[in-house]
From TrEMBL:
Gene Ontology terms describing biological process: inositol metabolic process; inositol phosphate biosynthetic process
Region annotation Disordered: where it falls in the sequence: 1-53
Molecular-function GO term, any one: inositol hexakisphosphate kinase activity
Membership in a protein family: Belongs to the histidine acid phosphatase family. VIP1 subfamily.
Biased composition (Polar residues): 1-14
Pfam name, any one: PPIP5K2_N
Biased amino acid composition, Basic and acidic residues: 24-43
Name of the top EC class for this enzyme: transferase
Name listed for the protein in its UniProt record: Inositol hexakisphosphate and diphosphoinositol-pentakisphosphate kinase
Gene: LOC107665739
UniProt cross-references to InterPro entries, sorted A to Z: Acid_Pase_AS (IPR033379), His_Pase_clade-2 (IPR000560), His_Pase_VIP1 (IPR037446), His_PPase_superfam (IPR029033), VIP1_N (IPR040557)
PANTHER family: DIPHOSPHOINOSITOL PENTAKISPHOSPHATE KINASE, INOSITOL HEXAKISPHOSPHATE AND DIPHOSPHOINOSITOL-PENTAKISPHOSPHATE KINASE
Length: 517
């Protein structure tokens, strides 16, 4: 039983998910098994089903064309292999016709706008149910307006082509100043020399025009949503459109390709390049009819841009376009939710990143025991000519210098009753040894040293047996630094009942005092 084996997980040829309906219950649709099929574990689980075991419901709320698309199906199949994740696809007729109260329940929602999608309803659903949102819905209003997209990019400090907005809004005539010449336009005072790009403000409108300078023969290239093998046509028309609102921007000279970036969270981005539709408008296709894609490695700067776009637009799954020109990369389009097509690696990665994200966010609150699994591919084993070996990936060292301050230690014999009193006070007789480290205790030793020294000065003939020089040394050491703190001094007292000092002591310390009787 291996989690990573992709085959034989579902009982039918068709991908099988739970199709949700009213009030979170499920019902049959299109002959698809309604139960969530979470792979091979399912049958075993059912034998000793634990009623308390809670599944995390991941709702898919988008137009059917998107929910049933090939990449979505591939990714959801992989997502439902997570033991605790159940996918529920919201049927399109439920989304369009039912009130949000009757939409299926979910803990996490993958929902995104496309043509005909009732974004307002989806927003009210999230207000009602408050699921974890993979792609923020409110930001999806902005994504539909190129002016907002560019404003957000600018606010985030992301490089984008220099641009100006021509708003044909009767209420705001000051935003509609256009001066047109043969080889340039002036938009609200800002000059754009040909070649420049004219984009409808609606991001849903793909009729982007590029105007050529007279030196290149004039005219314009009219881009549109791909129709078969065409993505644009040349037009001899050199004057800009006079109805509708547009963004005018400088044309970025690339190598003729667009870099398409697809994020899955801020730390994952897939990129690929495609021939720009701005060239001759002929779409490059392979023998299977798929559009030709060129491999791309994002630079560190571009990865940072991907992270910023993903976070700024709050879209975990987010597609955007980069133009590599003049040694920089400029974002010219942010599309929001978009999956890479025809890449098994991406399907695997995307499902894994999303599944881990959902588990990380929701497992704790649903009391599901979970930690990010260690994948076989994460184990650093490398094949070599002499077999497989563990690859050394990092060395962590905690290092200190080797020159240790030498021990500073003095030894002295003491016989005075004051030392014995101290020895007794701190329980020295129990083991015959005593360590004094506390400021109060050290102060007491110092007080004794001072007292004995004072008495020695006063009466030379007194019965103090301690050596004056040793007492002075003891006093000097204990008076160092002006106060007792930390652990930079200690006094050790060892009781020697027969009056015999040890030949040597292994004890560390600054003052070792032998109590002799
Ligand atoms: N400033 C620019 N300089 C050069 N080429 C540009 C510029 N802006 C856009 N293009 C070209 O025009 C194409 C379409 O532009 P853009 O991506 O903004 O429009 P779109 O219709 O929203 O595209 P999509 O189909 O990705 O949604 C780009 O892929 C790129 O090849
Ligand atoms: Mg684009």
């Amino acid at each position: 039983m291996s989690k990573s084996s992709g085959q034989g997980m579902c009982n039918s040829e068709l991908p099988q998910f739970l199709i949700g309906s009213e009030g979170g219950e499920s019902r049959e649709l299109d002959d698809i098994d309604m139960r969530k099929i979470s792979g091979h574990y399912r049958e075993e689980e059912e034998e000793d089903e634990d009623q308390s075991e809670r599944q995390i419901m991941v709702g898919i709320c988008s137009m059917m064309k998107k929910s049933k698309s090939k990449p979505m199906t591939e990714i959801l199949e992989r997502l439902c292999k997570f033991e605790y994740i159940t996918v529920v696809i919201f049927p399109e007729e439920v989304i369009l016709s039912e009130p949000v109260e009757k939409w299926p329940l979910c803990d996490c929602l993958i929902s995104f706008h496309s043509k005909g999608f009732p974004l307002d309803k989806a927003v009210s659903y999230t207000k009602l149910r408050n699921p974890l949102l993979i792609n923020d819905l409110n930001m999806q209003y902005f994504i539909q307006d190129r002016r907002e997209v560019y404003r957000i990019l600018q606010e985030e400090g992301i490089d984008l082509p220099r641009y100006a907005v021509l708003n044909r809004d009767p209420d705001r005539p000051e935003e509609c100043n256009l001066v047109e010449s043969e080889d340039h336009v002036e938009v609200n005072g800002e000059v754009f020399h040909k070649p420049f790009v004219e984009k409808p403000v609606s991001a849903e409108d793909h009729n982007v025009y590029i105007y050529y300078p007279t030196s290149a023969g004039g005219g314009s290239q009219r881009l549109f949503r791909k129709i078969g093998s065409r993505s644009s046509v040349y037009s001899p028309e050199s004057t800009v459109r006079k109805t509708g609102s547009y963004i005018y921007e400088e044309f970025m000279p690339t190598d003729g390709t667009d870099v398409k970036v697809y994020t899955v969270g801020p730390d994952y981005a897939h990129a690929e390049a495609r021939k720009s539709p701005a060239l001759d408008g002929k779409v490059e296709r392979d023998s299977e009819g798929k559009e030709i894609r060129y491999p791309v490695m994002l630079t560190a700067m571009e990865k940072l841009v991907a992270r910023k776009v993903c976070l700024a637009f709050k879209q975990t799954v987010c597609g955007f376009d980069l133009l590599r020109a003049n040694g920089h990369s400029f974002v010219c389009d942010v599309n929001g939710f978009s999956f890479v097509k025809n890449s098994m690696k991406y399907y695997d990665d995307c499902a894994k990143v999303l599944g881990n994200m959902v588990m990380r966010e929701l497992a704790p609150q649903l009391h599901i025991p979970w930690s990010i699994p260690m994948e076989a591919e994460d184990i650093p084993i490398v094949p070599t000519t002499s077999g497989t070996m563990m690859e050394l990936r990092c060395v962590i060292a905690v290092i200190r210098h080797g020159d240790r301050t030498p021990k500073q230690k003095m030894k002295m014999e003491v016989r005075n009753a004051l030392f014995f009193e101290l020895f007794e006070k701190y329980g020295g007789y129990k083991s015959g040894k005593l360590k004094l480290k506390k400021p109060k205790q050290l102060q007491e030793v110092l007080d004794i040293a001072r007292q004995l020294l004072a008495e020695l000065v006063l009466h030379n003939d007194c019965e103090i047996e301690e050596k004056k020089s040793k007492l002075e040394q003891l006093k000097t050491v204990l008076e160092m630094y002006g106060h007792f703190s930390g652990i930079n001094r200690k006094v050790q007292l060892t009781y020697l009942p027969n009056g015999q000092p040890k030949a040597s002591s292994e004890e560390e310390g600054m003052c070792t005092v032998g109590l002799l009787r």
